[in-house]
Amino acid sequence: MEKLRMETVNLTDRNIDKIAELFPNCVTEMMDKSTAKLKRGINFKMLKQMLSEDVVDGNEAYEFTWVGKKKAMIEANKPIRKTLRPCKEESVNWDTTENVYIEGDNLEVLKLLQEGYLGKVKMIYIDPPYNTGKDSFVYDDDFKQSKEEYEEYLELYEDGNRMHKNTDTNGRFHSDWCSMMYSRLRVAKNLLSDDGVIFISIDDNEVENLKKICDEIFGENNFVSLLATVLNFKGNNDEYGFAGTHEYTLVYTKTIKGVKFSNLLIKDNKEIEKWKIDEKGYYKQGANLKSTGINAPRSKRPNLYFPVYIDENLNISLERTSVNDVEVFPTTNDKEMSWRWSKSKMYNNIEDIIVKKSNSEISIYKKQRPDEEMPSTKPKSLFYKPEYSSGNGTETLKKLFNNKIFDHPKPIKLISDFIEIILNKDDIILDFFSGSATTAHAVMQLNAEDGGNRKFIMVQIPEVCDEKTEAYKAGYKNICEIGKERIRRASKKISEDNPDAKFDGGFRVFKVDSSNMKDVYFAPEEYTQDMLDETESNIKEDRTSLDLLFGCVLNWNLPLDKPFKTELIDGFEVHTYNGEFIACFDSNVSETLVKEIAGRKPPKLVFRDASFNNSPSKLDIEQIIKSISPDTQIRVL
After folding, report:
1. Which alpha helices (H) appear in 66-146, and where do they start and end?
2. Span of 41-50, 85-94, 443-452, 536-545 with lowest mean pLDDT
3. CA-CA distance, 222 to 122, in Å (whole number)?
4. Mutual orientation of helices 438-450 and 479-497 as an angle, nearest 10°?
5. Cα–Cα distance for residue pair 285/305, rounded to 1 Å
6. CA-based angle 353:357:359, to the nearest 5?
7. What is the C-alpha to C-alpha distance for residues 567 and 294, in angstroms, rounded to an integer?
């Protein structure tokens, strides 16, 4: 029986596989310094030549770099031996919910999710630290450098040494932030679906650097917009020179082809009043059908000069139906002009014309239909609504908790509008800087309003609250406690405000921890036989069967939100995860149990080493399973 890997995939190896498919001559062998063994690698000189029509020579090229970038690249690709431990007692509707809340360093979480959610996330929204000098910079990824290391690096790029480096960044302050963002965005891209979109909130401090990072990771051709996002229309008078009104939202697609951005539904009552309904649906008065501009005169477009006839009920026709019909030509101040539509188009779209009469003047307009079924408007690059006010975000949270327990939460309406633009009603949204969980709140609110079943994944490092803050005084020791409680309270309030609404207000909580497996599991060759004999189990003593179950979920690249059942068979605890695999982690399993679960013919089946009395027992059980269900994959921990 094969063992499960129980560590994240090595992205470097995967990238080498992809290059090997295109350029097999660029794959070579090199010495692994850590193991002193040969491993596969890339001949970068050959790869450069394969991607160039000319002879590759010299170092001059355009690129954006900073101190620590190479380490950030390595960090993004490096596999980890971590797991996600389920926390059922902190969850809501554990058995039925499809939402997920994960506590831990988001880089580790992204790596743990990258296989199970590979290409499955339709939208990512993040509101990362803005690097103002006041942010709590809590992500330690081993790529921060000492002053000595930094100065040594700079010596390589003295004036006159024209290397291919762009040194417009300003030292370690920016470098640390760039490294943090680079590695996380590099891994996050893998989770996006091909038609997926990422929205990133940012301010002036790092917007230029962030755009360069995103251009490199997502591709300049997948840049959609840099939205000026107005959060303070009155302006912040504390800012130098100008009263700041806005932040920015960077928008990129995974692959720009095929991505559909929806219009925003019009929900303002005054705007809705402008729309009427006929047998085709909503419409409002559109453009005048009489042409204007330099090409409007009859002499320029003679075929578009013709009469239409208006009866006393303001119905339009291309032929006179009564002596009382009024003949109307496209004229302006007695000058002969032209119609925007031809006769045939007028005839075919006669029901989409509005006739208005003011005094003795008759005007003819087209009916403007919404792009969607309901009245909507295309989002503008100046992203502004009164509901986007940062004060609204603060006030919403304050009302939920009866206290101001979090600084600068994003307004719900801002996030829900982003969601409305890109997400379908069954899609997944990920927020890996989730803070106070505004994104989760927005998802639940929108689902309650339109009957959607959008799912969220919130990720937040358990950053400790300062003892002087209202949050700490209220009993919230870290930001994750605030986020989880907000989801609980928001779900309750949405249900109270919308008693007939059906939406998923629950979430499964997971926490990043060290591997479920002891070190001996990964490197048995480093242990003597005596040491192995003394080791009763590969599995750490504090791990539960639920811990092991979700360790297998991650190892087999499955989502965390699927239903599963736990039952007793012949006195042994058995888990069935969404029909994907069956697991039993009890010791000394019986033949009755083995025959029962093999008879269900699961695609995969997992035991632990301690499930068997000895090696012959393991072989016997394997033979029993294969005789009953030959296609079942069998694995052990």
Report:
1. 69-77, 106-113
2. 41-50
3. 15
4. 20
5. 23
6. 170
7. 79
> What tens digit of pLDDT does each residue of 316-344 get?
999 999 999 999 999 998 899 999 999 99
**By C-alpha distance, which of 440, 421, 445 is closest to 429?**
440
Backbone dihedral region for residue 58 (phi beyond 0: left; psi -120 to 50: alpha; all else: beta): left
| Nearest to 586, CA basis, from 561, 557, 566, 565 | 566
First vs last C-alpha separation in the chain: 10
Rounded Cα gap, residues 437 and 409, in angstroms? 9
Q: What is the CATH number of domain 82-129+173-266+377-513?
A: 3.40.50.150
| Structural contact between residues 338 and 298, judged by C-beta atoms closer than 8 angstroms | yes
d(CA 413, CA 425): 17
Average pLDDT over residues 367-387: 75
Averaged pLDDT for residues 300-307: 95
Helices and strands: H and E segment counts in the chain = 19, 29
- Confidence at 151, pLDDT banded by 50, 70, 90: low
Going across the sheet that includes 326-328, the strands are: 316-317, 308-310, 326-328
Neighbours of 387 (CB within 10 A): 15
Radius of gyration of the chain (CA): 32
How far is the C-alpha of 154 from the C-alpha of 79, rounded, in Å?
30
Q: What's the CATH class of domain 529-636?
A: alpha beta
Can you tell me the distance from the alpha carbon of 412 to that of 436, in angstroms, rounded to the nearest whole number?
11
Q: What is the mean pLDDT of residues 293-299?
A: 93
Distance CA 58, CA 525 (A): 46
Other CB atoms within 10 Å distance of the CB of residue 408: 12
Kindly state the average pLDDT of the residues 423-439: 96
Taking the C-alpha atoms of residue 91 and residue 433, their distance in angstroms, rounded to an integer, is: 19
Q: Which regions of the chain carry the CATH code 3.40.50.150?
A: 82-129+173-266+377-513
Rounded Cα distance, 377 and 370, in Å = 8
pLDDT tier at 55, thresholds 50, 70, 90:
low
Answer whether residue 136 shows pLDDT above 70: no
Looking at residues 277-282, what average pLDDT do you find?
82
Using CA atoms, how far apart are residues 59 and 203, in angstroms rounded to an integer?
A: 34
- What are the residue ranges of helices labelled H in 239-354? 269-272, 343-348
- Given this model, what pLDDT does residue 438 score? 97
Nearest CA to 608 among 543, 514, 534?
543
Average pLDDT in the chain:
86
- Does 17 have pLDDT greater than 60? yes
Residue 139 pLDDT exceeds 90: no
Domain(s) of CATH 3.40.350: residues in the chain? 529-636
Q: At how many degrees (to 10) do helices 172-191 and 147-154 cross?
A: 90
Tokens of 148: 């000595």
Cα–Cα distances in angstroms (integers) from residue 233 to residues 197, 227, 396, in the given order: 27, 15, 18
Give the pair of three-digit tokens for residue 80. 């980890």
